[in-house]
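Worked example 3. Consider a protein that binds magnesium ion.
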Amino acid sequence: MDLEKIWETVLAEMEINISHANFHTWLKNSKLINKDDLGNFVVALPTNFSKEWVENKYQKNILHILRDLDSQAKKIDFIVQGNIFSSNQNQKTLKGNYVSAPTQMAFPEFKVDPETNLNPKYTFQNFIVGSSNELAFAAAQAIVKEVGSKYNPLFFYGGVGLGKTHLIQAIGNEIIKDYKNSLKVRYVSSEKFTNDVVWAIKNKRMEDIKKKYRDIDILIIDDIQFISGKEKTQEEFFHTFNSLYALNKQIIISSDRPPHALPTLHERLRSRFEGGMTVDIIQPDYEMRVAIISTKLQESKHELPDKIIGIIAGKVNENIREIEGLLNKLIFIKENKGVEITEEVINEIINKNTQVNKNINPNKIIKAVADFFEISINELIGKSRKKEIVEPRQITMFLLRNILNISFPFIGDKMGKRDHTTVMHACEKINKEMEKNINTSQKINLIKESIYKN
Ligand code: ADP
Ligand code: MG
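Given these inputs, the predicted complex is written out as structure tokens:
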């Protein structure tokens, strides 16, 4: 059986196994490009993002199907290969030439270790400690020394951009380092956990979930507020929690609010969360903001006069992500436009930004896109699959994420109750499109301008 036939068969089966949206998003553009006599298969996917996803979620399922076709099938390697289908010639040269395939990072944050899901860029060393997070940091350090026995669970909460993800991932990275890989760590966002549960229920593979999340020593779960109200996911999380807890395994949780303020959380989960250590992270004060700016400048080998640092620290006081964003902009302007960073320059940039934060909301973005493409909002969030509607729809999702930084599920909800994987796919697609197509980036800039102007 040739590669094409084999893959056709696998896809046909997968199409039945998973939801239509998921199939389209993740598998439609895949291709089997090699198979050797030892039962090793190589599958190409168009982006790193889809590779990660398919690898983590569908690998087993696919291998299963392959084994039915070919009893020798042993292992699948996934590789990234842009332009899988761009031309016949390309398809031919692909075979046997896959190792040097250019790997493109669609989202830098996906440079994660596939085993632990941790991003190595988050460390204790580059976590700046001040009065707003010193308790949280102390608890994090204590956990690393006494995994599972000191505070369990350890629950961090605080607003966006204050360093929760950084801190909990840093704990994971530190444990890996200190215990020389002898402890199994797994980091997961609660969006992904939810997804896994939904998938497992649909495919009757709850055993996979149990293995994945209970057969570990440290479970780190980010943004737990998203499981509020999701019955099955809460249920599964409750069992996972209990099973780990009973074995003294460490559980680390982050949330945007304290346990008692999670509206639709089951009482029994809430009391579990409150049974450990709960620490908040608050907004950094002026001194700490100065320290953050200086350190970040040092890290990126850039300099600004103390006076300017002081001005920035005085103005940007929401969160640390905002500080990083502003510094990146300043550095960009300085390097690419040769503009000296003065107080006026900073004021101008900040005014633009804060305006953005103040009056922009999802409805405004949706309306701006509809107006720009001269279609109705109903069409935009409706079901039509016409190209003239699909592109604006994807751009809307991209802008909602890009400008307001809101969660994929929330965007999905807003955009006609779509699955969040559809949103992730849309954002990724537009991101790539903007890189290679000047037309798209121009369109998006025009829409952005109209959003900021009004
Ligand atoms: P949250 O998860 O609370 O929304 P993140 O952990 O994603 O916030 O932090 C936002 C950005 O700010 C990240 O790039 C992170 O590395 C940086 N950051 C946050 N807190 C600190 C800190 N104390 N020291 C250094 N960088 C920080
Ligand atoms: Mg976070």
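Take a moment to read the result before moving on. The CA atoms of residues 128 and 292 lie 7 Å apart. The radius of gyration is 24 Å.
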